[in-house]
C-alpha cells in the first residue's frame, strides 16, 4: 500500500482529499497545525477507514520539527501539500503572516522532504498567481503577476519547488466549491470566504448572505470566476500523483472547468437549483480582487487525462447535504 503525507489535512480540500486517497487504497500521514482546520473530519475518516490507515500529526510547518515525522513514518513516497493560509483579504491586511506561514512553512517542508530522501511533491497553487490576467481563459503560460500577498506567497513557493530538485506537479486551482458527493465532508471555514458555500447557507437560513464583491468591469459588474468541484479537483491530485509514480516529468497545471460564472449568476443558479430565494445583504467589499479568472484546462486533459465531471448543480446539491447535517461545519 502506498503511503503519502498530506499537509493541511484538517482543512476543507485536504480533508476531502484524505477521503479520496484512503478510498483509493493509500495510507495517509496527515499534518496540520489546526490553526484553520479541524480534527473532527480526521476522526471521522479514522472510523471510516481504520485507525492504522490514517496517522495524524499536529504540527506547524513554519515552526515545528517536520523531520521528526519522516523519522517516525518510514516509506513515505510523496507529499501532497495543501497546508496554507488562503484568504486574499487577510493577506492584504497581514502580508507578514502569509510570508511566514506559507513561504517559510513550505521552505521548511521542502527541506525536510529532501532530507528524508523523498522526491515527489504535489502542490496546491492558485489562479491568484496570474493576478489580473487579460486572457479570456488563462493558460499556464500566461504571465504571473499576483496582485495580493496570498498570490505572491504561492508564486514564491512555486519557485522554491521548481528550484528544489524535487519532481513536482504544481496545480493552480481556480475557485473550489462543493462537498463530497455524500455530503459527509465539506468546508468549515470560519468565517467562510467561499461564495457558493455562503449562498447555500443563506438559502438554508443558517446565516445571512452578504455580497462582499467589489464592483468590477464585467457585464453584471460582479467578478467572474471558474468554480471547480472539490472532489473533481482532488481526483486531479490523484491522477497527478499516479502520473509522477509512472515517471512523469514535472509540470504546472491549471484546475478549473473552463467556464466562468459571475457572482450574481452563481447566486441565481443556487436559487434555481434549491428553489429558494436568498436574501442579499451588502457589506464592505473585499480587497485584492480582480474582475475575471477562468481557466484553460487543456493541459490537465492532455497530461493528466483529467476532466471535471461534476456540474454546478452537483456541487450545490452536495453542499445542501453537507450544511443540512453540519449547519456550522465541523465544530472542532
Ligand atoms: N479553497 C479554494 O478555493 C482554493 C483555491 C486555490 C487554492 N487553494 C489552496 O488549497 C489549499 C487548501 O485550501 P482550503 O480551502 O482547504 O483551506 P483551509 O484553510 O480549509 O485548509 C488549509 C489547512 O492548512 C492548515 N495549515 C495552515 N497553515 C499551516 C501550517 N503552518 N502548518 C500546518 N498546517 C497549516 C490549516 O489549519 C488548514 O487545515 C491551500 O493551499 C489554498 O491556498 C484553495
Descriptors:
14 strands; Rossmann fold; alpha/beta; 18% strand; binds nicotinamide-adenine-dinucleotide; 332 residues; 7-stranded parallel beta sheet; 3-stranded mixed beta sheet; 11 helices
Concise overview:
With 332 residues, this protein is α/β, with parallel strands linked by helices. It has 11 helices and 14 strands.
Question: In words, what does this structure look like?
Answer:
The protein is α/β, with parallel strands linked by helices and 332 residues long. The chain has one domain (3-325): Rossmann fold. Helices cover 38% and strands 18% of the residues. The chain has helices spanning 12-23, 40-49, 67-72, 88-93, 95-115, 149-162, 195-203, 230-245, 263-274, 298-304, 312-325, and strands at 3-7, 27-32, 54-58, 76-81, 120-126, 167-173, 175-177, 209-211, 224-225, 227-229, 251-255, 261-262, 280-282, 292-293. The strands form 4 sheets. The chain has a 7-stranded parallel β-sheet with strand order 3-2-1-4-5-6-11, sandwiched between helices. Strands 12-9-14 form a 3-stranded mixed β-sheet. Strand 5 (120-126), helix 6 (149-162) and strand 6 form a beta-alpha-beta unit. The model has no long low-confidence stretch (mean pLDDT 95). The structure holds nicotinamide-adenine-dinucleotide. Nicotinamide-adenine-dinucleotide binds next to helix 1, strand 2, helix 5, strand 5 and strand 7.
What's the gyration radius in Å?
19 Å
Strand/helix succession:
EHEHEHEHHEHEEHEEEHEEHEEHH
Form type: globular
At the fold tier of CATH, the topology name is Rossmann fold
CATH architecture: 3-Layer(aba) Sandwich
Beta-strand content: 15-25%
- Name given to the CATH homologous superfamily: NAD(P)-binding Rossmann-like Domain
The oligomerization state is single chain
Using the coordinates above, name the CATH class.
Alpha Beta
How many beta-strand runs? 14
Q: What structural category do the secondary elements indicate?
A: alpha/beta
**Number of discrete domains:** 1
Please, what is the average pLDDT? Answer: 95
> Going across the major beta sheet, what is the strand order?
3-2-1-4-5-6-11
Helix content: 25-40%
Amino acid at each position: 500500500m502506498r503511503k503519502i503525507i498530506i499537509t493541511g489535512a484538517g482543512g476543507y480540500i485536504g480533508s476531502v482529499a484524505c477521503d479520496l486517497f484512503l478510498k483509493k487504497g493509500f495510507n495517509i500521514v496527515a499534518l496540520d497545525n489546526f490553526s484553520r482546520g479541524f480534527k473532527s473530519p480526521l476522526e471521522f475518516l479514522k472510523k471510516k477507514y481504520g485507525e492504522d490507515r490514517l496517522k495524524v500529526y499536529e504540527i506547524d510547518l513554519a515552526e515545528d520539527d517536520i523531520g521528526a515525522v519522516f523519522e517516525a513514518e518510514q516509506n513515505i513516497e510523496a507529499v501532497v501539500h495543501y497546508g496554507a493560509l488562503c484568504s486574499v483579504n487577510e493577506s492584504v491586511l497581514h502580508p507578514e503572516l502569509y510570508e511566514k506561514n506559507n513561504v517559510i512553512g513550505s521552505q521548511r517542508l521542502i527541506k525536510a522532504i529532501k532530507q528524508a530522501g523523498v522526491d515527489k511533491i504535489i502542490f496546491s497553487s492558485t489562479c491568484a498567481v496570474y493576478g489580473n490576467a487579460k486572457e479570456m481563459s488563462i493558460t499556464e503560460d500566461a504571465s504571473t503577476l499576483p496582485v495580493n500577498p496570498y498570490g505572491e506567497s504561492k508564486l514564491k513557493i512555486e519557485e522554491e519547488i521548481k528550484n528544489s530538485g524535487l519532481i513536482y506537479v504544481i496545480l493552480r486551482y481556480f475557485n473550489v466549491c462543493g462537498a463530497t458527493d455524500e455530503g459527509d465532508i465539506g468546508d468549515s471555514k470560519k468565517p467562510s470566504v467561499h461564495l457558493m458555500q455562503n449562498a447555500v447557507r443563506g438559502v438554508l437560513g443558517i446565516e445571512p448572505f452578504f455580497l462582499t464583491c467589489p464592483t468590477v468591469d464585467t457585464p453584471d459588474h460582479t467578478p467572474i470566476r471558474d468554480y471547480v468541484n472539490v472532489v473533481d479537483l482532488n481526483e486531479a491530485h490523484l491522477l497527478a500523483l499516479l502520473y509522477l509514480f509512472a515517471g512523469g516529468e514535472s509540470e504546472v497545471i491549471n484546475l478549473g472547468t473552463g467556464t466562468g460564472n459571475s457572482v450574481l449568476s452563481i447566486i441565481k443558479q443556487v436559487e434555481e437549483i434549491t428553489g429558494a430565494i436568498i436574501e442579499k445583504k451588502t457589506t464592505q467589499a473585499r480587497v485584492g480582487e480582480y474582475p475575471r479568472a477562468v481557466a484553460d484546462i487543456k493541459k490537465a486533459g492532455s497530461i493528466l487525462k483529467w476532466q471535471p465531471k461534476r456540474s454546478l448543480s452537483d456541487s450545490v446539491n452536495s453542499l445542501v447535504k453537507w450544511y443540512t447535517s453540519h449547519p456550522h461545519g465541523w465544530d472542532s
